[in-house]
Amino acid sequence: MAWLDPPWTWVSQNSPLPKCVFLQPGWGGVWWPSPLGKPLQCCLCIRALRLHCIEVGSGTRSRKIQIRNIPPHLQWEVLDGLLAQYGTVENVEQVNTDTETAVVNVTYATKEEAKVAIEKLSDHQFENYSFKISYIPDEEVSSPPPPQRSRRGGHSSRERGSSPGGSSQPKQLDFPLRMLVPTQFVGAIIGKEGLTIKNLTKQTQSKVDIHRKENAGAAEKPITIHATPEGCSEACRMILDIMQKEADETKLAEEIPLKILAHNSLVGRLIGKEGRNLKKIEQDTGTKITISPLQDLTIYNPERTITVKGSMEACSNAEVEIMKKLREAYENDVVAINQQANLIPGLNLSALGIFSTGLSMLPSTPGARGAAAAAPYHPFASSSAYLSGLYGAPPAGAFPHQHPLPEQEVVNLFIPTQAVGAIIGKKGQHIKQLARFAGASIKIAPAEGPDASERMVIITGPPEAQFKAQGRIFGKLKEENFFNPKEEVKLEAHIKVPSFAAGRVIGKGGKTVNELQNLTSAEVIVPRDQTPDENEEVIVKIIGHFFASQTAQRKIREIVQQVKQQEQKHAQGAPASQHSK
């Protein structure tokens, strides 16, 4: 029990505000998060002007914290990555406020992780803004939360779980509407002192990001709208109306089309078999719809531009139908990916960019996991640069003395010879971008002969890099139509295992390898008559679609790791037993 007389110098002007204040005649009780991250229950003696502080035991700490004074322009991928450095983030919710800065409630998996986050993030500086952080007591976590608006969703960690006492009803995935607007109309959309955009967001209950700084000098700028489907459509309608009025005032004769951005992996289902879906939307809405060619795609911009021409009313109606199809495709993908993730325990697919279809497409920030420093906005690279990693491990450097860097793996992936040019790209740009995105070394081996039907791609990197690099290669082959549209992309991959572990991969009577094949749907072959190489390793062949191949690779690595650990224990135990004799 300690008495702290004025001036109580340990409380800086930047300290978080008291969470709760209890007043009675002559004294008051204050619940105040201390600079050390431990909540203090304080009695303020009014007459004596003394602060009576009692440290609350660690058992009463909460898993939930509140972060205030977040810069309004901070990209949410950056915040997600920052939070993920200190533990597993189960949920992130934005709190509606009247302030310019943002406020979020964050729920960590454990109280210890929340404690570390408070210690590390208190007064964290970001461009002249200082984060203010405090605990939210457990009783508040357990009570039903007030209506809140999620800033982001879909692939973010906040969709993975909910607070202990929260509703068990699944949240609707946040699938934002992405638009392209002519640069000359951006000023009108924002309005004088931002009044137009503020009015728009208020009326539609949406969050609208206008990416003005990206692609300086470009004729068009992307806009991302986060809201309910109805809110997105209403915001789109209002933006079209603003642009049309501005065009009329500036006497622009040309018709302003609606341009929607969508991830390439969703566009095929929008078009439909033989273009039926798109034709129906055109007929029902009286519009003309075109989609940008595949050739315009790059590793850092996998979006297609859907251009809708017609009256403003017709374009608005078409937007509703287009987004309905895209949203449906996206939700199906999320379900499928989550089902596949269950095959690999601990696999964090949301930390990967390659399948985060149609989500927030905001620019990455320099720094993490080999991500490009100043790449344009891109859906599948936004979160992967910041989240904690494929297997829940924190980013390199977060806890340097506790978590060793993941082991480098080598995988040889065989692709059709005619696909080599597409993987390399013009002047090698595609393969360089792919290597940067995945954080892996990617090389294409020389052809074994003039008539070779396949070429070997050598991928070197940790597990997460392997997943990203191989995933993008599978995806590229599908996008470039090297396989029949109705045919799954199946490739052969080779990994090497120590010769002493090959028997364990096969199992007694081939039991293990058969179980592997049943579990993963991949074909797994361990040639029995192999001669080990100079490193005493043999090749295991894996043939299958992407998820099947990945699951098999991970399971085989897991078996090998178990064998290695047993060998180490045996080696350590042998000298000890000899010494005891």
From TrEMBL:
* GO terms of biological process kind: mRNA transport; regulation of translation
SMART domains on file = KH (SM00322), RRM (SM00360)
Give its localization. Answer: Cytoplasm; Nucleus
Name any one Pfam family assigned in the record. RRM_1
State if DNA damage is listed as a keyword: no
Q: Where is the RRM domain?
A: 63-138
Q: Which InterPro entries match?
A: KH_dom (IPR004087), KH_dom_type_1 (IPR004088), KH_dom_type_1_sf (IPR036612), Nucleotide-bd_a/b_plait_sf (IPR012677), RBD_domain_sf (IPR035979), RRM_dom (IPR000504)
Q: Spell out the Gene3D superfamilies in the cross-references.
A: 3.30.310.210, 3.30.70.330, K Homology domain, type 1 (3.30.1370.10)
Q: Which UniProt keywords apply?
A: Cytoplasm, mRNA transport, Nucleus, Repeat, RNA-binding, Translation regulation, Transport
Q: Name one GO molecular function term.
A: RNA binding
Question: What ranges does the record give for the region Disordered, renumbered to this chain?
Answer: 137-173
Q: What is its main location?
A: cytoplasm
> Which GO cellular component does the record give, naming just one?
cytoplasm
Which family would the database say this protein is a member of? Belongs to the RRM IMP/VICKZ family.
Q: What is this protein called?
A: Insulin like growth factor 2 mRNA binding protein 2
